[in-house]
Amino acid sequence: MTFRPVLAALFALFMAGAVLPGMARADVEIDVNQGEVRPLPIAIPAFTGASRGAEMAQVIAGNLDRSGLFAPIDGAAFPERNLDIGIQPDFAGWKAISAQALINGAITVEADGKLRVDFRLWDVFSGEQLLGLQFTSTPENWRRVAHKISDAVYERLTGEKGYFDTRVVFVAESGPRAARVKRLMIMDQDGANPSSLTDGSYVVMTPRFSSTSQEITYMALRPTGSSIYLFNIETARQETLGRFPGMVFAPRFSPDGGRVAFSVERGGNTDIWVMNLATRAQTKLTSDPGIDTSASFSPDGARIVFNSDRGGSPQLYVMGADGGGARRISYGQGRYMTPVWSPNGDFIAFTKQTGSTFHIGVMRPDGSDERILTTSYLDEGPTWAPNGRVLMFFRETPGGPPRLWTVDITGRILRPAPYQGSGSDPAWSPLLN
Asked: Where are the beta strands (DSSP E) in 197-257?
């Protein structure tokens, strides 16, 4: 059957250049300024059985709601409670409250103490089951099960991969502006389970996730100088990339996780280098009198986008991963910084400054189709969700602390991130295993 409200909700995705699997792009031109997202009404009653049923439903509802494509219905309107996972719901009652989709589930405690979670996704108007899956987990990982269910529902109804079973590493900031304490922190993408990775005794900057493992690289700044570290989140093992003459900063992994690109400042000149993590061999990629920094690999590892002031002001350039063939791709008004290639390869996100105003924007890798997604006193540091459809960044107001925000690639779904504390420099993990 055709799920019309879902297609309406996905209208903005098509305008942003997305084509769902199995669907061909129509030969039409769409005015991107006329699109409108109409979220899909979806009902998610508490799962039955063991404890955590209501909380699990709330986590799923929160995930889908924040995506901007779904509108969870208030539980006070539900016509049924304690839905039996083995019996079809009373669809007439759910139609009466305008639910288009329904999720119900059951939690069972197995003999070994593990949780088994069964759930169903229903098309209310046809009465068809669209999805039915089962997950088994330890009780303390119940939230991850909720995130996995959210991902499965999101993918089934949108054709896009989900991004909810992920984590975000960022710089938590505290204290007065002139003496900020900066710690590395990690949390679930919905703001839950925040924990510190460093103790705040030194300044940390620009954490970046590997796309292949739960490992990050970041810059540490101490009175003795700067260093780049690798940090394995699962084992807490930490190691430095080595000593470099000059200041080192802005590290980022290659797509295969085998290399790290970074910038080195020596004698007023800044160039981009890359290190092979297996051999620790270093290669200098740029040799220009300007400042070359913020390197980010394309998903296939063949190209690097970076920003450079070699032309007189910070602009975006793309070069081969070996440093050859650099060409400028940004030609709009303003200063372009912190580029990052999307996981799908279709866009490059960036920070843009025009006068005293900052923006988060995206453009195609050839510089075409530039779109400004946000405008504020200070918006900076975009990072992509692993499905390439949502960005997280940090925003500051005059005199206020930095906060984490999210925006989709249409710019229409702009929201504060769930984390209530101060944070900057976010980096989104790949989907967890």
From this structure: 203-209, 215-222, 225-232, 238-240, 247-253
| Whether this model's pTM surpasses 0.85 | yes
The torsion angle over the Cα atoms of residues 10, 11, 16 and 19, rounded to 10 degrees, is 60
- Determine how β-strand 303-308 pairs with β-strand 315-320: antiparallel
Q: What is the pLDDT of residues 253-301, one digit of tens each?
A: 999 999 999 999 998 899 999 999 999 999 999 998 899 999 999 999 9
**100: amino acid identity, one letter:** Q
Residue 2: CB atoms within 10 A of its CB come to 6
Beta bridge partners of residue 255, listed in sequence order? none
- Do 197 and 99 fall into the same domain? no
Same domain, 330 and 274: yes
57 and 111 together in one domain:
yes
Same domain, yes or no, for 244 and 129? Answer: no
Band (36; pLDDT cuts 50, 70, 90): low
Residue 356, classified by CB atoms within 10 Å of its CB into exposed (0-12), middle (13-18) or buried (19+), is exposed
For residues 71 and 41, the answer to whether their CB atoms sit within 8 Å is yes
What's the chain's Rg over C-alpha atoms? 23
At 29, is the secondary structure helix, strand, or coil? coil
Does 34 share its domain with 91?
A: yes
| 8 Å CB contact between 191 and 210 | no
Token couple for 319:
């070069």
Confidence of residue 123 (pLDDT cuts 50, 70, 90): very high
